[in-house]
Amino acid sequence: MVDVPAGAPVRRSLPALHPIDAWLAAQGTRLGLWLPVMLGVGIAVYFALPIQPGWWWSVASLVMALAVLATVRSAGLSIRALAVALVAASIGFAAAELQTTRVEAPQLDRPIGPATVVGRVRALDASSDGTRVVLDELSIDGLAPDETPERVRIRLTTRSVPPAIGSTIDLRAMLIPPSEPVLPGGFDFRRHAFFQRLGAFGYAVSRPEVLEAAETGGLALWLERVRLGIYDRVAAQVESGAMSDDAGSVAVVLLTGDRSAISDELYADMRRSGLAHLLAISGLHVGLIAGLVFFAVRAGLALSPTVTLTQPIKKWAAVAAIVAAFCYMMIVGATVPTQRAFLMAGLVFFAVLVDRRAISLRLVALAAAVVLLVAPSSLTGPSFQMSFAAVLALVALYDGLRERWLGWRVTSGPWRRARLYLASLMITSFTATLATAPFVLFHFQETPVYGPLANLLAVPLTAAWIMPWGLAAYLLMLLGLDGLALAPMGWGIDGLLALAHWCANLPGAVIATPALADVAIVLVVAGGLWLALWRGTVRWFGAAGIGAAAVIAAMTPIPTILVSADAGLMGLRLSGGVLAVSQARTDAFTRTQWIRLTGADTAISWAELAAIDPGFRCDGQGCIWRAGDGAVAFAFEPDILAEDCAVAAVVVAQEPVRGPCAAPIVVDRFDVWRNGAYAITLSTMGEGPSRSLSDRASVRTVAEQTGDRPWSRTVP
């Protein structure tokens, strides 16, 4: 028997749970790695709710979870672990509610203007389509104070002189609300803008008039002036011919975090080649800056034998690296991804200060927990998901290979070490690409086929040439000699862009796929976490979740009938990867998003479809499409509605349907006004006389996706 110390709690567990308790005990500290996962579960539940929970939901759930934990404190390990998981999920739920309450501000629900807008210039960026300003401290003609957004973003007229950061300006502008998803399952830009406190977007119809000069104080304003100063330095190099236009725009991204000057063509090449992540300031960039400073400071201090032998130069270098990473984060804008990257880098070098292993799964878990508690909404974005997926996969992989890898290095000569370095780059690139691929498919619906090859060449080029010269440019700007560093930095960027262009234009460079179902990405995340966080053979059960996700993704039907939020654009997604749209020259943004979300290979007009498909006919009043055992009618004029309602199973009308309609499924102008864009899927299962077309149809709307939340559009 085992003696139990006096006063120690007695653990009681059901006999059936003894094997699970023993298995969890064998996992040891790995149990703690699941705490940020459960935080994320609570946050995910919060954002998945169709209605806005009151603050009492958070309080009640947390109190109940704590009560459960207190009740089962003497139970077995499995029960206690489950109770702790409930507490963590409740904390995540409460953190999401708190962030929503903290950032909530009015958003427009209808276009207005031209209206007089008075506000302070909070941010300024120049892009290919003009200068854009973000204004706060707003007064907008026609809006009451409680209807006025916290911030708006406005594109200035082409001949406007950009106002100074911090100045108060007056202008006339057309304003529109943040856009909703263009299709159920699409990106919710309105929610994204909500958490940035952006309540409207628009364009100026007059030049801005400066009412008050820029303030001289304030860290945020000073940093904006620093960024503009860096932009001017790079622009001067471009004008002198020392850097190409594209190299200059990328240099601005790497040095200031401003991506507005990136051309659509350049970004398309970077995306298709799998190198777009190099244009998003993330862990790679922050880690490179911190690492360069760490090794430079340590090497410099090592030049003095006395200092080396008497002082902890490694820790001094770690402090310098943390300071450098913080300064870089502030200069490039301190966005949530950059804050997350700084946190990761800071924890790595803090581990050096306290003589602990610098990189571990516990470090990743701690960074994830901090980010989720500070900015819960980041969980829903591709930046958080992709960066942590890549970091977690790499740390888990190298954690498993650590001893073997170190053994290889110790027994290797120079040439073998070089081969090991090359192999590590290839493994790193392949692992990161594989780990982020599901999220690329989920958010962007495409896979860069040559991404691993491009990254194998581009990442070393960025790490060994571009970023070191960028760091040198920062330092030389203080002396006015930044041209000595910006020019060679531009050479490296030109090489990077040439590589991106080459890979982007190779045959089959991108595989387009329809949007993944939510359940598929949930299974991928669950399976990946199971693989990475557990130890032992049981971890391989995570592959079942990933496999199930692949099956679900392959079986998920693609929407057949698409209707835009104003019914002005309609579409048919046909077999063979063809998307036919009612208007080939209007609403280009929605049309482009439809192509991407449905995984279409090509887009044609309805006139082209009518020429090749005898089952599709159009006239001036509308179109009708014979879909196997039924018909789908698209009505442009109200006069045709009576006939369409009599013969069609599905009727989509650009005008309101004011009378009775016998069609089982009707979508008219009032419906899209209330519910946003529609997607109707016609299943091929059960097709035939025993099952009508309307029985095979499933209808989804944007309103179902967004629910009744603070960021949802309010229908007057």
What does this protein structure show overall?
The protein is α+β, with helices and mostly antiparallel strands and 716 residues long. It is built from 24 helices and 19 strands. The chain has five domains: 15-103; 112-216, OB fold (Dihydrolipoamide Acetyltransferase, E2P) (Beta Barrel), CATH 2.40.50; 256-372 and 445-500, no CATH class; 518-555; 561-706, no CATH class. The protein has a six-stranded mixed sheet. A five-stranded mixed β-barrel has the order 1-2-3-5-4. Residues 1-10 and 686-690 have low confidence and may be disordered.
Low-pLDDT stretches are: 1-10, 686-690
The rounded Rg comes to 29 Å
Helix run count: 24
For the residues shown, what is the average pLDDT?
87
What's the arrangement of strands in the largest beta sheet?
A: 12-11-10-9-18-19
Summarize the structure.
By secondary structure, the protein is an alpha+beta fold. The protein folds into 5 domains: 15-103; 112-216, OB fold (Dihydrolipoamide Acetyltransferase, E2P), CATH 2.40.50; 256-372 and 445-500, no CATH class; 518-555; 561-706, no CATH class. Helices cover 52% and strands 15% of the residues.
Write the layout of secondary structure elements.
Blueprint: H1 18-27, H2 35-48, H3 55-71, H4 77-103, E1 112-127, E2 130-140, E3 151-155, E4 168-176, H5 189-194, E5 198-204, E6 209-212, H6 219-240, H7 245-256, H8 264-272, H9 283-302, H10 305-310, H11 313-331, H12 336-353, H13 361-374, H14 382-410, H15 414-444, E7 446-448, H16 451-477, H17 483-504, E8 510-512, H18 518-533, H19 542-555, E9 561-563, E10 570-574, E11 578-581, H20 588-597, E12 602-605, H21 606-612, E13 616-618, E14 622-626, E15 631-635, H22 641-647, E16 650-653, E17 665-667, H23 669-675, E18 678-682, E19 697-701, H24 702-706
Parallel strand pairs: 3-5, 11-12, 15-16, 16-17
Antiparallel strand pairs: 1-2, 1-4, 2-3, 4-5, 4-6, 7-8, 9-10, 9-18, 10-11, 13-14, 14-15, 18-19
